[in-house]
Specification:
Its cofactor is Fe(3+). The chain is mainly beta and about 50 residues long. The chain is built from no helices and 3 strands. It has a single domain, classed as Rubrerythrin, domain 2. It is about 0% helix and about 15% strand.
């Protein structure tokens, strides 16, 4: 599982720690498509592999 970075604000989604409502251990591919960056509200599609 790889970390993902928001191309808008730089927020990192780390699957080892999760993010808000997403529990630790959830791969980014398994995060719902409706999920938004908790910092800038960018769509999941705006994230790239770190």
């Amino acid at each position: 599982m790889k970390s993902m970075r928001c191309t808008i604000c730089g927020h990192i989604y780390n699957p080892d720690t999760g993010d808000g409502e997403i529990q630790a251990g959830v791969d980014f591919a398994d995060v719902p498509d409706t999920w938004k960056c908790p910092i800038c509200m960018a769509d999941k599609s705006m994230f790239i592999t770190v």
